[in-house]
Amino acid sequence: MQSKNKRDVFRVSRPAGGGLALTVVAAIVLLIACTPAGAQAAAKSAQPEGASGNIQNGRQLYTSSGCYQCHGREGQGSRFSGPRLGPPPISLGGFTAYIRQPRGQMPPYTRKVLSDAELGDIYVFLKSIPQPPPAKSIPLLN
Questions:
Q1: Which of 7, 73, 103, 131 is surrounded by the most beta carbons within 10 Å?
Q2: Alpha-carbon span 59 to 86, nearest angstrom
Q3: Which long-range contacts (CB under 8 A, 24 or more apart) does 1-6 make?
Q4: 75 phi and psi, to 5 degrees?
Q5: CA distance 50 to 125
Q6: Is residue 30 part of a domain?
Q7: Has residue 26 been placed in a domain?
Q8: Does the pLDDT value for residue 118 go beyond 80?
């Protein structure tokens, strides 16, 4: 049986040369993650054309009303829950009518729950979300 030095007990073994490779990979992942986020933040701060409402209030209402639970934090939707919402291809009137009397499993949001002005803010928030890039433009998916 070998006796261990006290220093050896606290030493973390690392593969030779792995530190630099891990740092490079982490930097690349961080760069990729930050680039779209910066573009999305800039797009969200600009008011969509022809829209009136408060984007920041819409984002807050979208979250506090529970919309994100089915439709995702950015309205991206899911095959297993709610469909994609942002940016909505329908008019504000169509959006409001559907929210008030939805089909399927979505609960209705009456004026007692969300006012028309609040729905307008949510709509403007959803319109401010940039379209995702086409799948063909993403090298890893081709």
A1: 73
A2: 12
A3: none
A4: 75, 20
A5: 13
A6: no
A7: no
A8: yes
> Secondary structure of 104-126 in the HEC alphabet?
CCCCCCCCCCCCHHHHHHHHHHH
- State yes or no: pLDDT of 20 exceeds 80: no
**pLDDT tens, 24-83?**
444 443 444 444 444 444 444 444 444 578 999 999 999 999 999 999 999 999 888 889
Say yes or no to pLDDT of 1 above 90.
no
- Reported as a pLDDT band with limits 50, 70 and 90, residue 115 is very high
Domain of residue 102: give its range: 46-141
CA distance 108 to 77: 18
Domain containing 136 — which CATH number?
Answer: 1.10.760.10
| Total-model pTM | 0.61
For residue 101, tell me if it sits in a domain: yes
Give domain status of residue 122, yes or no: yes
Count of domains for the chain? 1
Side-chain half-sphere exposure of 90, counting CA atoms within 13 A: 12
Q: Match 């008019």 to its residue by tokens.
A: 91
Q: Which two tokens stand for residue 76?
A: 């991206």
